[in-house]
Amino acid sequence: MLAKFVERMDFVAWSSPDHEVFALRACGRRLISLTKERTKAKNQLHAFGLTKRTPSFITDDIKLSIEQLDNQINNLITHALSIIKESNVLAARYKRLISIKGVADKTAIKLLGELGVLESNMSAKQWVSHAGLFPREFQSGTSVNRRTSIGKIGNRYIREALYMGALSASKHDPNIRGFYLHLVNDNGLKKIQAICAVMRKLLLAMHGMIKDDKPFNSQRFYALDSM
Length: 227
What we know:
mainly alpha; 2 domains; two-stranded antiparallel sheet; globular
């Protein structure tokens, strides 16, 4: 199949992004890993705290691990922000992303690295497809039809970053929250489905913001008077 692809498709040389983009992508992926470790440690601390039979040195050890992970995360964010400041392109894109309520340093770092390595001529729909945020229908024969869900293929790092951003934005941005509530209350979507729809629309908005170098416009995302 690869041989046939090479025969039929014209060769297009790949233009590698700047090394700062790859460095930032590494920071973002490491940040995701450390955050998961911290969440796991906090869950362990909670579980051990439910019984008085847990030795204090166990909980002290877990607390020390959480403190160390916090320091690692903060140090990583500091270095990542330094990388962003060194690049005019990354700095401009960072400024656009954090103009979205709910998208702070960590989410912006994760997204900038992943989106920065994509081809500059990719469309917004191609971004959505690359992230695996397109709806997927499930059917089995004629009797099993499940609700449309999000596909599991695609860039999971983009999805993970967008998920946290969508959760926060759905709480702090009135227009995004209005869109979320519209999907849940009026369209009958489950909460997780509505969040996935917010993720997809946020990614579409980010594509336009970066392409046109414009800040986020909540009214264009969803007008509250349309409710």
